[in-house]
Amino acid sequence: MKLRTLSRAAALGLLVFPGTLCAGLIYSGPTDTNHPIDPAIPSSDARFAEWANEIDASRTAFAPRGSTTINVSGGFNSLGDLNAAEIAAGATPGYLTVTFPSGIRNGQGHDFAVFENGFVFPSDPFLLAELAFVEVSTDGTSFARFPSISTNTTWAGTFGQSFGGFDTTNIHNLAGKHAAGYGTPFDLDDLVNDPLVLGGTVDLANIQYLRLVDIPGNGAFLDSLGNPILDAWLTSGTGGFDFRLGVGTGVGVIHAVPEPAAIVSLIIGTLCLLERKRRIRGGARDRA
User: Are 147 and 284 in a shared domain?
Assistant: First the structure.
């Protein structure tokens, strides 16, 4: 079995249960567009069918040191960062929710990509990264979170954790692991065993909301394997994951929910094909 034939969900399972095939899978670097599991996707990629076009204010809240108002005109929305005291007190990290012209559906391979503005530092594969969990929803109330991996235990650079690079080959299924101009891909197949999906609350054929939840990277927040997640912390000024709405930024959709007109057209086409086959069969019986 070739590793590249595995779904990302299966690859995650190999890390959860090391030894089933191999252990210690390495993921893509900040600008690696050819990786078999989670390649960076350029913003100009022709596969993008649509882009997130609205920020849902009722489902968005910035943390301290984040933006004070929602920006929908091309500027960045910073989710904010929590300091140690706020984390210890149980403060909620900043989060932001977007919607789409038609939505995301589960197709073959990656279904969407999330963009941030991190940059390579001090050298590839290290990235000055501000990471976020990714969650999706059909109804805007129940959100399924993508399983994630982050096994970094330190950072590179001489300026400390607040301005240090993190090895993104140790990170998977967290938004912000690729450099500016490159999207981090996500595959809805990774959620097929999520309880909300199994229960029918989250429909992977009809994702209408996507939520980004900032990760204050001091290690207090954990990946799906229980590892502490590290990123740039504590950031100064406006901090946390940075999101910019628009084409070529934000969230690019690879597999969009079909427009109603397209569904009607497909139904009509199918009915016409069935009617044509019926007539052919009827003509054959008459000639017999």
Answer: no
For residue 284, the enclosing domain spans 260-288
Residues 44-86 have pLDDT tens digits of 999 999 999 999 999 999 999 999 999 999 899 999 999 999 9
Question: Is the domain of 147 the same as that of 281?
Answer: no
209 and 175 inside one domain: yes
pLDDT the model gives residue 22: 37
Q: Does 243 share its domain with 265? A: no
Look at residue 68 and tell me if it is in a domain.
yes
> Per the omega criterion (within 30 degrees of 0), is the bond before 122 cis?
yes
Q: What CA–CA distance (Å, rounded) separates 27 from 37?
A: 7
> What sign does the dihedral 242-244-247-248 (CA atoms) show?
negative
pLDDT attached to residue 275: 63
Regarding whether 264 and 186 lie in a shared domain, the answer is no
Q: Are residues 219 and 104 in the same domain?
A: yes
Are 104 and 136 in contact, with CB atoms under 8 Å apart? Answer: yes
- Which string of b and e fits 233-243 if b means at least 16 CB within 10 Å? bbbeebbbbbb
Query: pTM for the whole thing?
Result: 0.85
Cα distances (angstroms) measured from residue 55 to each of 132, 181, 204: 16, 20, 21
How far apart CA 87 and CA 81 sit, in angstroms, is: 10
